[in-house]
Design goal:
Elements: H1 3-22, E1 28-31, H2 36-53, E2 57-60, H3 73-85, E3 90-94, E4 100-103, H4 117-122, H5 124-136, H6 144-147, E5 153-155, H7 169-176, H8 180-190, E6 195-198, H9 203-210, E7 216-217, H10 238-253, H11 259-266, H12 268-273, E8 290-293, E9 314-319, E10 322-325
Parallel strand pairs: 1-2, 2-3, 3-7
Antiparallel strand pairs: 4-6, 5-6, 8-9, 9-10
Length: 342
């Protein structure tokens, strides 16, 4: 099967699955997999899947990544607005950082994987093709190395040697006396789950998207702890700082949003969009999910150099009516939510 036929088959299958979800009041959430033109294509694809399957579409996570797309944030937002003008039901979210995080294997072209890497490296022709693809990309696939650079790709979680976590591939290669390409292969061969943080966006583009009151705030993250299994690694600071960063930097300091607009982007808009009934508002009869914070002191303290750091200015966190944090850890009252959950 050719690459085009594989992509077409996946698209057709996705539309069919989305159609099944539509019959149950579902929503299609498409994750933007890359930057450059691919990011625009991925957003358009999510919108088209929603149209074809007759269900709402959600684009996660709005960004313009790599030198192929820098400065095009307004164009991306305009594409969404134009789709809405045509009648598409589409929404989006964003995390407020200039770096993304994913698996280091994102640096490999789609025709291979960490599991197949030993065989590819053992074949001189295949190895040469692989190295050229990683450096320059291939038709239909944009290279993170070409778009971001070895010096802006940092080793993240699950690094086989935690001491290299938080260091760029350039730095790891120099310390080992090898080329960055060799460092990449060595890390993937040692642990295929090794993560990477790519500093691939511009602050101006992040600010443009943050300033849209209709774009939700999301972390694109997981729950982590300084004392947990990922506490040894340089994870993305968004796990700890996404929401306070919006409130401190973009509301209080830069005034891109009002406090009310920012809170809506974090609460009622996503709750309504994803069908989380009785969530996202302070209202009689709703679930008591509350955060008490000082708008003059709220601040994100997590950085890329020191990511495991909790926010300041938060007084109390209440989940489902129970105190989860008030300066000390309280009860764990969270629960999995489903659309229409009550």
């Amino acid at each position: 099967m050719t690459a085009f036929r594989r992509v077409l088959a996946v698209f057709v299958a996705t539309v069919a699955l989305a159609g099944a979800a539509a019959r149950h009041g579902g929503l299609y959430a498409g994750h933007i997999p890359g930057g450059g033109a691919q990011g625009f294509d991925a957003a358009a694809e999510a919108i088209e899947i929603g149209d074809r399957a007759a269900l709402p579409a959600h684009v996660s996570h709005l960004k313009v990544e790599s030198r192929f797309a820098w400065g095009r944030s307004e164009e991306l937002l305009r594409a969404i607005d134009e789709a809405r003008a045509r009648g598409a039901d589409v929404s989006a979210d964003q995390y407020p950082y200039t770096a993304w995080e994913t698996a280091l294997s994102i640096c490999l072209p789609p025709w291979t994987s960490p599991a197949e890497l030993p065989g590819v490296l053992a074949d001189a022709g295949a190895r040469r093709r692989l190295e050229v693809a990683i450096q320059r990309g291939e038709p239909g696939w944009e290279s993170s190395v070409q778009g971001v650079g070895w010096d802006r790709l940092y080793v993240g979680s699950h690094a086989p040697d935690p001491s290299v976590s938080g260091r760029s591939l350039d730095e790891v290669a120099a310390a080992r006396g090898v080329e960055p390409m060799r460092a990449l292969f060595d890390l993937l061969l040692a642990d295929p789950l090794t993560g990477v943080i790519g500093h691939g966006m511009l602050e101006e583009d992040v600010r443009t998207i943050v300033g849209r009151p209709d774009v939700m705030v999301g972390t694109d993250g997981v729950a982590v702890s300084p004392n947990g299994p990922l506490g040894r690694f340089a994870v993305h600071p968004r796990y700890y700082g996404t929401f306070p960063r919006i409130l401190a930097r973009y509301v209080r300091e830069e005034r891109l949003l009002s406090l009310e607009e920012a809170i809506r982007k974090m609460t009622s808009i996503p709750a309504d969009r994803f069908g989380l009934r009785d969530r996202g508002r302070v209202a009689e009869g709703s679930f008591a999910d509350l955060v008490v914070f000082d708008p003059e002191r709220i601040v994100d303290t997590a950085t890329f150099e020191h990511p495991h750091s909790f926010a300041g200015g938060v007084e109390i966190v209440i989940v489902n009516g129970r105190v989860a944090w008030d300066g000390a850890r309280g009860e764990r009252a969270g629960r999995a939510l489903r659309r229409g959950y009550a």
